[in-house]
Amino acid sequence: MTEISAQSQATLDSLLKKLGATSASATKTTTHKTQLDQSDFLKLMTAQLSNQDPFQPQSNDQMIAQMAQFSTVSGITQLNSTMTGIATQISENRIATAANFIGKTVLVPGNIAMADDTGGISGAIDLPSDATSVQLQISKMTANGQAGELVKNIDLGANSTGLVGFQWDGKDDKGAAVGASRYIVTATMMSGGKASQPPTDVYAPITEAPVPASGEAQTLKVAGVGVVKMSDIRAFKY
Asked: Which run of H or of E encompasses 140?
């Protein structure tokens, strides 16, 4: 068949456009595949069998190896898809679980203690070694976040390495309620004849559970402490 000239084709396309029709040349599109699928593999295998040397045919072992390779690749692709779905479900469940923590009281590292409904505070002292004496000082927190008036000193005595819990009812030595909403706690320990200040943990409520980006660790906002990681939580108190 003789091909028509470009000018003739243009004239024909113009006429078809006036008639509301479209030429085949204008609608023909070509799509290119970027990945081979199972049908492509079967076509290649069929072509390979059709064009093999009849005197030196493809061995069964080689054919089985090729099919096994394709099966492995197909299985990995399916596994990746499945794992992606599982990761999505885990992420959604993690967010839902974190949301359930809001309002719960947790023990986290810090020295700013929030008074509870009774006006008291509680927490723990993390002793790095055995101590012959442990003292806890509780002070009112000033407007600029510093330790102000000392309202209570608690003698916790000798303790072994690890967490030493404390609880204060919010009253001074005379039995009167102090009434502050936030306190600064400071611990002092004696070990080997030397004084030091071990780290403290405080119980405080979780106020927010931010949704983490993909691949990031879940964090929580704790009143008086700030943002903490899930792994920083030492204990829960309901």
From this structure: strand 131-141
> Does the residue 233 lie in any domain?
yes
Range of the structural domain that residue 192 is part of: 105-237
Q: Is the pLDDT confidence value at 184 over 60?
A: yes
Q: Is residue 119 part of a domain?
A: yes
- Please identify which residue in the block is written with the tokens 């819990």: 165
- The number of beta carbons lying within 10 Å of the beta carbon of residue 75 is 10
Number of domains in the chain: 1
Q: What is the rounded CA–CA span in Å between residue 72 and residue 178? A: 71
* 134 neighbors 153 (Cβ within 8 angstroms): no
Q: How far apart are the first and last CA of the chain?
A: 87
pTM strictly above 0.70: no
Residue 198, domain CATH: 2.60.40.4070
Taking the C-alpha atoms of residue 112 and residue 114, their distance in angstroms, rounded to an integer, is: 7
pLDDT tens by residue, 49-105: 677 666 666 666 666 676 667 667 666 767 777 776 666 566 556 666 677 888 889
Residue 98 lies in a domain: no
Structure tokens at 48: 């390979």
